[in-house]
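Morning, I've got a small favour to ask if you have a moment. I've dropped the whole record in just underneath, so have a look.
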Amino acid sequence: MNLSTNTSGTEQTSASDSTTQDAVIQCNHAGAFENVYAIGYIKPFFSTLDLEKQYEAAAKVVGKPTTNYSDIFNYSVTNQNQPTLNYRPFMYLAKQATWVLTVNNVDTFELKPSTPTQLDALIAAAGLPTNLFILVGQTQHHEPGFKPSLPKVRVEHLIDITKLQAAHKTTSSSKQLTFPAIKPNIGRTATARATNYLTTHFGQINLSEANTDIMGAISEIHFEIQANLSDRQIIEFILTSPDANRYACSIDVSDRYPFVASPLAPFAKSN
């Protein structure tokens, strides 16, 4: 198959073009709910000077730098009347903070936890400022004529990529490969979500039934949008190794959580 030529029922392009496609498709979907599968860093901000001052005072009480968000928000004390009951006096600051996902050094989403568990997950993520996280969520509607400073995303799940990839190293030879010309993206289109899933889960995708690596390196990557499937959104990735062997796998992004629709296998005979 010639990757530079469009074929019936598919759209073929380089995976590095997916960010540009994101911007175009987002304009067409303004106001609609969208699944999000984004990669970035998580940090809280305080919208008023009063909240900032209260947070600085809390940091002094805890005896931690203001950058130690998890230590400050999770600081607990014992209730004098109930010695067995601990509570976190500065959790109100975490609840009033504006939680932001930063993608490629750009503040991209305002994160809205809907349960205490999700708020705890945001606090834990803020305590790991050098770790990239996968955000699984859904954009929220805004009032007609009102444009928020950042799109709001209801948080469903946060995945620490460092822990995820460490768990995928099931053999001594398994390694995380470098993908050419691909950066973390905002994950609002099918191709963007599939690309984020592929790059973060490739340690698992690349394992054969014998628990050995299928590919040792990647020199090129392209994808095809499977447009003929009316009820599913499936993206096929074609990966080329430095020795010109090609492999393919498909990612289904129809639902909130992507998954592998077809495993990594030889795509075509090499020239």
